[in-house]
Amino acid sequence: xxxxxxxxxxxxxxxxxxxxxxxxxxxxxxxxxxxxxxxxxxxxxxxxxxxxxxxxxxxxxxxxxxxxxxxxxxxxxxxxxxxxxxxxxxxxxxxxxxxxxxxxxxxxxxxxxxxxxxxxxxxxxxxxxxxxxxxxxxxxxxxxxxxxxxx
Length: 151
Ligand code: AMP
Fold this sequence. Notes:
Blueprint: E1 19-20, H1 33-43, E2 47-51, E3 57-62, H2 63-69, H3 80-83, H4 86-89, E4 96-98, H5 103-109, E5 115-119, E6 125-130, H6 131-147
Parallel strand pairs: 4-5
Antiparallel strand pairs: 1-6, 2-3, 5-6
The chain binds adenosine monophosphate.
The site of adenosine monophosphate has 14 residues, from strand 2, strand 6 and helix 6.
């Protein structure tokens, strides 16, 4: 069986996997968490990027973080939804990489992250790459390789 680290695929560019910025659901740091929750529920996504008006990446916000932030001692406190800003709740721990990164590197990031944020050399947000897209491609590649009898 051919060793995975000998496959050229690992050196491939990640740009074909990019979901570009205009297709990425996002919120801004000064939006309320109520607005963020609406976007998250309507889009069906678990977590989305937080971008400023210049499309710089500041963090990620998830449904779980929002729900946790309105959890009182004895009850949910939904009034906090309108009082709290996204910047106060988002995480700044982000899986991110440059657009020059290889498939191999991004695949390894995706082990622990459902999506990875991609930036250009100047730090401008370009979009995201999802784990599901990487795995779908890898699955197709491995099937093709098997069909061709390479292992
Ligand atoms: P998927 O692999 O398509 O299920 O996406 C995994 C995760 O990536 C989603 O739960 C979201 O957190 C994020 N995601 C995928 N597509 C988008 C998008 N167009 N805009 C914002 N976040 C997205």
